[in-house]
Amino acid sequence: MRSGDDYVILHPAVIRVCHWIWAAGILLLIGSGFQIYNQEPLFDFYFPSYLIIGNGDESVAVHNDIGLAAALLVHFFAMWLLFTSLSVYVAYGLVKGHFRRKFLPIWPKQVIGDVFDFLRGRLSHDLGTRNAVQKLLYTFAVVAMAMMVWSGLVLWKPIQFYELSIPLGGYDIARYVHFFGMVAIVLFIIVHVALTLMVPKVLPPMITGRARRDQVEAHAQGETP
Questions:
Q1: Residue 93: which residues within 8 A CB-CB, separation 6 or more?
Q2: Residue 221: which pLDDT band, with cuts at 50, 70 and 90?
Q3: Cβ-count burial of 193 within 10 angstroms (0-12 exposed, 13-18 middle, 19+ buried)?
Q4: Which of 8, 69, 94, 196 has its CA 20 to 30 A from that of 51?
């Protein structure tokens, strides 16, 4: 049996909790958002019903709509999940220096080099170390989630949050920002899940928080929980 000294905390509890709340919240937001989009589509297509969360016959009977009321309830619930967890994560990242250690710096030369290494099958995947492409992707995901919360508040309360809509170009433009933010997050999820399946050793530490010391780069050991 290994002693406690053989393991390190790779992902503190606050990071893990926020990560899994995001996972649940974003899936609920996307699934319910498809139904809300179908009610007043921006483009000439609709999302199929099997992708929708909150589409039920009971909503038709009670509210005389095709699942919109149920989808809105799910969407607002998930919105607060995302808003709360994102706020906690950003506060933690700033106070504890998590962003500085895990996300910075990001140099274009490193990104290009890592892309070519990936194409040649030479890109390393060390626990506790993010390559430049991963740093860029995770930074992109955090920014995309922040934009979704921002534009979502404008769509939810366009009068009360009118000032927030001005930098986005107004309510109508905020709808496009929200839609393309959803597309960006869906693409990120696809890439994120694909990379996790390719390198499954990264998943257990995101559940337990711990990793064997001999599997973690020295500079990544001992992040303050």
A1: 99
A2: very low
A3: exposed
A4: 196
